[in-house]
Amino acid sequence: xxxxxxxxxxxxxxxxxxxxxxxxxxxxxxxxxxxxxxxxxxxxxxxxxxxxxxxxxxx
Length: 59
Fold this sequence. Notes:
Elements: H1 10-29, H2 34-48, H3 53-58
């Protein structure tokens, strides 16, 4: 272990949280009612670009 502060080894996070995250992603993937909403969102972003956050903030 070196003296200066560093981020923990990413592999530790994968070991620790990999299964949980994988299960969560799979759970989301199989929530079929959410899928069309997700696709529509991607399509809107692709068509019109990312929303203008300044307009949202200062409307």
